[in-house]
Design goal:
With about 170 residues, this protein is α+β, with helices and mostly antiparallel strands. It contains six helices and four strands, in the order ααβββααααβ. Strands 1, 2, 3 and 4 form a four-stranded antiparallel beta sheet that branches. β2 and β3 form a beta hairpin. α4 packs antiparallel against α6.
Length: about 170
């Protein structure tokens, strides 16, 4: 009789153990997924991810031959106030920018002569993009800044004749 009671008690504890393990598994599953997503985001931001989806999109852009490239240098370096970061202090970025133009683009002949007259609008786009980031983000993700500036300029012109943005010099303080 005692052996049967002991077997029933062990069976009952086994069932409770399995039930609590199942509850524990399902309750930590959501947190684990969120943690994995956070780690993926951080590693992508730090360029530790080998197969970054954003990088593969950039690599898929059309290659332009060297003889079809023209560099347009924005003459002045720009001092841009960055948005407040974690420390709450004012930070600045001093940057000199060049635009890489594709001479074979159908809109090149139409828009290239307007670059000098539209330089202030281009600088404004650069100010808007760079100034919207805190220093920590701007320093660690300069490729992202270049891409955002490029997209803003391409959107402004409605053309992809500007196909790359180059920082000739960039400093943060």
């Amino acid at each position: 009789m005692k052996k049967n009671m002991l077997s029933v008690l062990i069976l009952g504890l086994l069932i409770v153990n399995v039930a609590l393990t199942g509850i524990l598994l399902f309750s930590t599953m959501g947190t684990t997924k969120k943690t994995n997503k956070l780690i993926d985001g951080i590693s992508t931001a730090l360029s530790l991810e080998i197969s970054d989806p954003a990088a593969s999109e950039e690599e898929s852009t059309t290659e332009v031959a060297m003889e079809d490239i023209e560099i347009y240098q924005i003459a002045d370096s720009m001092t841009i106030g960055l948005s407040k970061g974690a420390d709450g202090k004012a930070h600045y970025c001093i940057v000199s920018v060049s635009l890489t133009l594709n001479k074979q683009d159908p809109d090149y002949e139409k828009y290239q002569p307007t670059l000098n007259t539209n330089e202030d609008m281009i600088k404004d786009k650069i100010f808007q993009v760079v100034g919207s980031h805190p220093i920590e983000e701007a320093e660690s993700n300069q490729d992202g800044l270049r891409q955002e500036i490029l997209e803003a300029i391409q959107e402004m012109y409605g053309s992809k004749f500007v196909y790359n943005v180059v920082f000739r010099d960039i400093m943060f303080s």
